[in-house]
Design goal:
Blueprint lengths: L7 H10 L1 E2 L5 E7 L3 H4 L8 H5 L8 E3 L2 H7 L9 E3 L1 E2 L13 E2 L3 H6 L4 E7 L5 H18 L2 E7 L5 H4 L11 H14 L4 E4 L5 H7 L4 E4 L6 H13 L4 E4 L1 H4 L4 H14 L3 H15 L1
Parallel strand pairs: 2-3, 2-11, 4-7, 7-8, 8-9, 9-10, 10-11
Antiparallel strand pairs: 1-2, 5-6
Helix pairs in contact: 8-9, 10-12, 10-13, 12-13
């Protein structure tokens, strides 16, 4: 894996998040649970303590916002934390989703023993300059503490329908080119890891981004489909997943995260991983 010219601290933190397999290839299964920072009490995370605690031992890293970290996670758990530090928006005003600001300081993240911080960056929105400035400011400050920066390629209300292939302009929208463009901008402005989506044309995204890439899980889909796109993403060059709803909203979240791990770290074929999900679920019934 290419960590670039990172200092010792960042390299050590990166190695905590990306775990090598038997062939020496480093991948990660991050557990994204930061949704309530703008969704509120998300389905499956109404009481994060019930959902998250059984999953944490199977995650290579966990991505909460400050509230979930402080009130719902056991401080004795050794799983690395990548802390969501941007906010200021909510789903009650979807038209303002891109209007994010840095809410939690890097000093506070370091105090909470996070190995990194995460930030959404909305490219091609009315708040693009603000978002990029937030990223640059965060990257400069995180560098002082040796913390990693996870830059998330986010889409606002205008772009979301086009990414989904819906609405006006979607027929001419090239998702691969957009995410390649956005991801490279995020890298160039200081991110150590880029989180993006697995879409047609992912090869262009991978070719144009030199940092590690993790794939967003997106909306909840059937378990077999989630395992399929996970396998396809890893085969296409992704370095891992940062999956949330497709794990914590699964029919059996603990079985699902183990199946995802088998795909990411062991190269298990998705059909066999789905069988594993069923076997694990049956054992837990």
């Amino acid at each position: 894996m290419n960590y670039g010219q990172l200092d010792w601290g960042k390299t050590n933190r990166m190695a905590q998040v990306f775990r090598p397999n038997a062939q020496g290839e480093a991948h990660t299964v991050m557990l994204a649970v930061d949704h309530p920072y703008f969704y509120g009490p998300t389905t499956g995370l109404e009481d994060p303590r019930e959902t998250i605690l059984p999953l944490v031992p199977y995650a290579d890293a966990i991505s909460p916002a400050k509230g979930t970290l402080v009130y719902s996670l056991d401080p004795l758990v050794p799983t690395p934390v990548i802390l969501r530090v941007t906010g200021g928006n909510s789903m009650t005003r979807r038209e303002e989703l891109s209007n994010e600001h840095i809410i939690t300081s890097v000093a506070e993240a370091a105090k909470l023993n996070a190995v990194g911080v995460s930030i959404s960056v909305y490219i091609d929105t009315e708040h693009q300059a603000q978002n990029i400035r937030n990223l640059g400011t965060l990257a400069n400050e995180a560098s002082k503490y040796g913390l990693l920066v996870l830059g998330i390629t986010a889409v606002g209300a205008k772009l979301e329908p086009m990414v989904k292939g819906e609405g006006e302009g979607s027929a001419d929208f090239d998702a691969g080119r957009y995410f390649a463009h956005a991801g490279r901008i995020i890298q160039e402005n200081g991110a150590d890891i880029v989180k993006t989506y697995f879409v047609d044309g992912f090869e262009e995204i991978r070719e144009g981004i030199q940092t590690p890439i993790v794939i967003a899980g997106g909306k909840k889909i059937p378990e077999a489909e989630a395992l399929e796109f996970t396998a396809n993403a890893i085969a296409a060059g992704a370095d891992g997943v940062d999956m949330g709803r497709n794990i914590f909203q699964s029919e059996d979240p603990v079985a699902m995260i183990q199946a995802v791990r088998a795909v990411v770290h062991e190269g298990l074929e998705p059909a066999r991983a789905y069988e594993l999900f069923g076997e694990l679920r049956a054992k837990r019934a």
